[in-house]
Write a structure and sequence with these properties.
- With 68 residues, this protein is mostly helical.
- Helix content is 88%, strand content 0%.
- It is rod-shaped, with a radius of gyration of 16 Å.
- The model has no long low-confidence stretch (mean pLDDT 94).
- InterPro entries: DUF4305.
- It comes from Rossellomorea oryzaecorticis.
Length: 68
């Protein structure tokens, strides 16, 4: 069974929020280090992927609606 782009996008956004939370906690505890930068980088990738997947979902939905 294939997952819809909307579902995947929401999962990516949730992961981005989770990595952002961990990055903030890491800065509070230890300051800016390699691990914190890695968490920020992963959060950025996840937010970007999530938004892209959600935009793909609406683009596909619009194309399907126009064909009817």
């Amino acid at each position: 069974m294939r997952r819809s782009p909307l579902f995947s996008g929401v999962i990516y956004l949730l992961l981005g929020i989770l990595f952002t939370y961990f990055a903030v906690q890491s800065v509070r505890d230890d300051g800016w280090g390699f691990f914190t930068y890695m968490l920020v980088f992963l959060a950025t990738l996840d937010f970007g992927s999530g938004l892209r997947m959600i935009m793909i979902h609406f683009k596909i939905r619009k194309q399907l609606h126009n064909k009817k």
